[in-house]
Amino acid sequence: MTTTTATGQTTGPQDNPLVEGLERLPVHPTALVIFGATGDLARRKLLPALYNLAHEGALPERFGLVGNARSPMTDEEFREMAIESVREFSRRPADEKVLAKLFADVRYVAGSFDDDEVYAGLTTALDELDETAGLALNRCFYLSTAPMFFPVIVDALGRNDLADRADAEVRVIIEKPFGRSLEEARELNERVLSVFDEEQVFRIDHYLGKETVQNVLALRFANNMFEPLWNRNYIDHVQITASEDIGIGSRAGYYDSAGALRDLVQNHMLQLLSLLCMEPPVAFEAQAVRDEKVKVLRAIRAPLPEEIAELAVRGQYAAGTVAGDEVPGYLDEEGVPDDSNTETYAALRLEVHNWRWAGVPMYLRTGKRMARKVTEIAVTLKPVPHVAFQSDMSTGVRPNVLVLTMQPNEGVSLSIGAKIPGSRMAIRTVNMEFLYGTAFLSQSPEAYERLIIDAMRGDATLFTRNDEVEAQWRICDPIVKAWEATPGPLPQYPAGSQGPEEAMGLQVGESPWRMI
Ligand code: BG6
Fold first, then answer.
1. Closest by alpha carbon to 475, among 267, 275, 281, 313?
2. Overall pTM > 0.70
């Protein structure tokens, strides 16, 4: 069968059996409004994601784009900016025909987020798009702005009659961070839900859009061999790492008021932990999946103030060398105050207090300017109960470690003990590997591609629900508060290293941090 896509390309059956199953789902004609359309996220991620969706014929046949930001700009200038962004940041080289078609009729409405004139302009632009399409398009409002504007925009959408319509769906996509504390997250939820129904709200956690993060669920629930072991009887401990080699770049303004815990742990890392620990959902659909994730989060007790020193470690990078380049320390980064106590590294030891996981330490760590970019979940099994080989040969017998790597080298690897060839029964650890890229021979779509299309389809499975975001905050809030109340200086770690020495103290038993 051949099909014609929204961009006029003809696609046919794939010859390669390994790309079988890569599919497109129908999407209702939609207009997407991006608030903050000239910002970093829009330029680096959202516009290139739209381009790649168009390239694959995954966008709805009738699709309209409207940008809003404060800088004055004409539709034509916005089109040029969008095209440039795609050329610079798209994962695949830009095809001029696809570009021209995608951005042919873009609109731009300039003005600040609290100005009702802006919303009048948006209404006109959206009505025109409906008229051209000859039907009422669904509307998606993407809040890609600084977080302080989320409530402002939501209120204005409500006030200006843009939050629902009788003959089509209206949805709002909200970027992270969702509040700076539990209290703020609750307030924001209240504000958002006073204008929209929860079914209309799509809170982004871009990690959920990553193929390899979704693969955690595939590995666990599409294979019978792991689930029987997936509990406190067989699993010794879990280490979740999200290390980065980059520093804060030009984001000091945001980062210095956020820190590593808010930036990565409260959202991405707790999502990874929930997916790893959740019970099998009855179906892969929004409510069922999110119900199970929330149960995991609720089973994690928020640390008491007196436990924080024992359960959480923070650090700040000092000058050092990353990939052969000398880089400055955090306090010398442009825009960071000299006396900043913002952590660029955070490590925690958590426990999921339920029947399946009680007693299994869950270690989480993240940091900027560490040795390498690695996102992985390493599940270490308990040692075998008895080593039958002669004692001098048994030193190679190590607990199995199952590593789910999200980036780089996406895949799964299982360490197993194997006999070294020869007349003696000596054991060594070897790895069984599955590499995503090799098995599917296709480039994974960027997380934002999947998430934008899911939001347009109204599928919230890969988005954070209101109670979920609050449950995440409940865990992090006491730590954030304790750290803010404790003066620095913070433990330092050289850029390009494994993180601060102090993080070693979190370990119980003999389970050092994995080398990154
Ligand atoms: C973002 C954080 O949410 O995730 C950034 O704000 C971080 O600080 C980024 O660099 C990491 O995402 P990824 O997809 O590169 O692992």
1. 267
2. yes
Mutate to test the pocket of ligand 1, among 144, 244, 245, 376 (most ligand atoms within 8 A of CB): 244
Atom of ligand 1 minimally distant from the CA of 407: 16
Peptide bond into 491 cis (omega under 30): no
| Integer Cα distance of 431 and 381 in angstroms | 15
Which of 264, 269, 407 is the pocket-test mutation for ligand 1 (most atoms within 8 Å of CB)? 264
Give CA–CA dist 370/233, Å, rounded: 33
Residue from 486, 186, 497 nearest 342 by CA: 486
Query: What's the pLDDT score for residue 393?
Result: 66
For residue 109, CA distances in Å to 72, 75, 441 come to 8, 8, 41
Q: At what angle are helices 286-298 and 270-277 packed, to 10 degrees?
A: 100
The closest residue, in CA terms, to atom 13 on ligand 1 is 207
Q: pLDDT value at position 509?
A: 76
Closest CA to 428 of 458, 396, 401, 460: 396
Cα–Cα nearest to 371, from 220, 225, 243, 193: 243
Tell me whether residue 206 is one of the annotated catalytic residues.
no
- Which of 55, 206, 268, 386 is catalytic? The answer is 268
| Whether residue 38 has its Cβ less than 6 Å from ligand 1 | no
**512: confidence class by pLDDT, cuts 50, 70, 90:** confident
Say if ligand 1 is within 6 A of residue 375 CB: yes
pLDDT of residue 4: 44
Lowest mean pLDDT, pick from 158-172, 430-444, 487-501: 430-444
